[in-house]
Design brief:
The chain has 4 helices and 5 strands; from the N terminus they run βαβαβαββα. The chain is an alpha/beta fold. Strands 1-3-2-4-5 form a 5-stranded mixed sheet, sandwiched between helices.
Length: 103
């Protein structure tokens, strides 16, 4: 299961592991509901990285700071630095390839 990310713990989460993957989502978003189980599977398969979800409705300030204009959006961080930003539903294989390439 992926970690719940909030404005309060966002910075700490990025420091926890070298690689962090954050899913910016909202409960009313249909594609976000499709991506949710994929993100959870990525988390279960990669316990050595941080995989989390940030609800943009409850954490709008953080979403705005990262220029989230559409959801779902996944941002990949390495060492706390944004590496890539992906919009829309992504297959597990594509997300896993990104993780594998960063390890």
């Amino acid at each position: 299961m992926s970690l719940e990310i909030t404005q309060e713990n966002f910075t700490e989460v990025l420091k926890e592991n070298e690689i962090s993957i954050i899913d910016f989502w909202a409960p009313w978003c249909g594609p976000c509901k499709t991506l949710g189980p994929i993100v959870d599977a990525l988390s279960e398969d990669n316990t050595d990285i941080t995989v989390g979800k940030l609800n943009i409705d409850e954490n709008g300030q953080t979403a705005a700071a990262y220029g989230i204009r559409s959801i779902p959006t996944i941002i990949v961080f390495k060492g706390g630095v944004q590496i890539t930003k992906l919009s829309g539903v992504q297959p597990l294989s594509a997300l896993q390839k990104i993780v594998d390439d960063l390890k």
